[in-house]
Every structure is written in C-alpha cells, then in structure tokens.
Specification:
Layout lengths: L29 E8 L12 E6 L4 E5 L2 E5 L3 E5 L5 E4 L8 E10 L1 H7 L10 H7 L3 E3 L1 H14 L4 H17 L3 E3 L11 H17 L6 H7 L4 H12 L3 H19 L4 H7 L5 H12 L3 H15 L1
Antiparallel strand pairs: 1-7, 2-5, 2-7, 3-4, 3-6, 5-8, 8-9
Helix pairs in contact: 3-4, 6-7, 8-11
Length: about 300
C-alpha cells in the first residue's frame, strides 16, 4: 500500500514509520529526556516501555490510542506499553519550540522484577494496568508531577531514581486522572500500517478545516473507500468523519477561548458549512452551546487572574 496523489488533492507528506526503539544507559533505570518540537520522533509511535509525558510549552492535539483531546502547558500523561500516541502542535515552516516536552520512559518489568526484593513495588500493579489505556492527570497531582519531572533534570543517579519513585507513587495514588483510550482499542502495530496512519493523521491535522472527503483521502492512501474506512477505524479507533469532527471542534474550542472572533466566523474557519451543523456537533460533544463554552472559558480565565 503506497500513497499517491489524486486529481484534486495534495499528496500526503511522507514521514518515518514508528516503532520507537528506546535505549537506556547501563547506569540508569529509566530514560529522562528534554525534547524540542518538532523532531524526528514526534510522530504517531508506540513502544513496549511506559512513557510519562509532560508538555511544558504550547498547545495542540493529544492523540492517545483512539482518544483525541487537547493539551496545553502543564499537560501530564502516561501511556502504557504498545499504546500508540502523539502530541501535535501546529508550527510554521522552520519554527522550533525549544524544550516543549519532558519524556520519561521506563520498562515496567524492571519494577515488577524488583518487587521480589522490594515488596512495596507490588502496590503499583493496578496503576500499571490502568496506564495501558493512557491516563491524563489534573489538579494538584498534575502540578506536583510536573515539578518532579522538572527536578529530575537537575540530578542524576540515586537522587533521580528517588524522584522517579516519588513520581510513580504520586500518579499511582491520585484520583485526579482521566482514562484516555477505549479498553477495546487494538490497532495493527506493523510498520507499514503505522506509516500510512501517521501520514494520514498528519494530512488530516493540516487540512481539517477544508472540505475533506473520504474518497479523496482513501485515494491518497492507495486504498478503496471501503478498505480505507475499515483500516482507519481499526488503527485510530475513530471513524473518518468522527476524527475530522473532533479536530474541528478542538480548534473551535481554542478560538472560542482565546479570541473574540464571532461564533459564526469560527464555524466556517474550522470547516463547517453552516452554523446549525456546527452548533449541533458542538452541543453533542461538549454538552453546551459554543456561546456557553466561551462564557465559561472567560469565567475560568478571570478566576485564575
């Protein structure tokens, strides 16, 4: 299966498929890394290791299994082994966001294997099971967890290990979290499928405000419409139309919160052809109208000031 250019559509950009091979130094129990954005590993990827991910700067779309959500500065999440994920920020050509992410990756079998000598580690098993669906943390737990992630960058050796155990204990005990991916999400984790899905997701993120049609995107993927529809649902957990709708509503929320653009203009800017469809989709997703969402966002902003 290869991507090709259709008659009236731009080619989906080629990206690197992604099983991420993680190498931990022999002297370390886990990997801690400060990442700029974008770079070559910022793609829809998976790995057997667990990943705790802190978004320090910018905002964008969080893709974790079949979950599509939004993130901003201070977003803290964990994804279990084998769960595809990506955090996408819209950037201009040549733009670089320095130090956008702190990434911590660890092998859960090291914790499980150490429980024979340190039986307290057995308390982490329910947390490790929950993390297989992905978790995002809120409130004071996210603030405290982010501080521990930052502090790890200033120390090494045993002090860093102690901070890691403190972080894992914090995330395991808190009830300030949301599970992300559906329990029955099971993508095809082969390199070719990941390559096609990564390129499709990139294309949809770049063009969701346009008049996207399933047959055109299927043609770009080199598949029939029915084959692509099943393939996309299997590997993202969302139908094509639901995925595009979630991207459009994510952008609408940003514009409602961050700008004074009239709601009717926002409707067309994010890809809806009429205000009635936009209002219905927004109400179904957020259980409130766009105007109520804007009012609530302003109230929350005023309370933080």
């Amino acid at each position: 299966m290869t991507f090709r250019q259709g008659k009236n559509t731009a080619a989906i950009p080629r990206t690197v498929p992604s099983f991420e091979h993680i190498v931990t130094e022999a002297s370390d129990s886990f990997l801690w890394r400060l990442d700029d954005y974008p770079w070559e590993r910022n793609v829809w990827n998976f790995h057997p290791e667990y990943e705790i991910h802190l978004l320090r700067k910018s905002s964008g779309v969080a893709l974790v299994g079949d979950h599509i959500g939004e993130f901003g500065p201070g977003y803290l999440a964990i994804v279990g082994g084998g769960l595809p994920h990506d955090w996408v920020t819209a950037v201009q050509p040549g733009e670089l966001i320095e130090g956008r992410d702190i990434v911590l990756q660890f092998d859960p079998q090291r914790l499980r294997g150490s429980a024979g000598l340190l039986p307290e580690l057995r308390e982490l098993e329910p947390f490790l099971e929950r993390s297989l669906r992905g978790m995002v943390f809120h409130g004071q737990s996210a603030i405290d967890g982010a501080a521990l992630m930052e502090q790890m960058g200033t120390v090494h050796g045993l002090p860093r290990l102690c901070l890691f155990l403190e972080l894992v204990d914090l995330l395991a005990r808190t009830d300030e979290y949301e599970l992300l991916s559906s329990p029955d999400f099971s993508p095809l984790l082969d390199a070719q499928s990941l390559d096609i899905i990564q390129r499709t997701l990139t294309y949809l993120f770049q063009h969701f405000a346009e008049d996207l049609k399933l047959p055109d995107v299927a043609e770009l993927a080199g598949m029939s419409e029915s084959t692509f529809s099943r393939f996309f649902q299997k590997n993202t957990g969302n139908s094509f139309s639901d995925h595009v709708a979630k991207l459009r509503l994510w952008q609408a929320c940003k514009l409602l919160s961050d700008t004074d653009i009239p709601i009717t203009d926002i409707c067309f800017q994010v890809g809806y052809m009429n205000i009635s469809n936009f209002n219905r989709a927004f109400l179904r997703k957020h259980k409130m109208t766009p105007s109520s969402y804007r009012k609530l966002s302003r109230q929350r902003l005023a309370m933080r000031a």
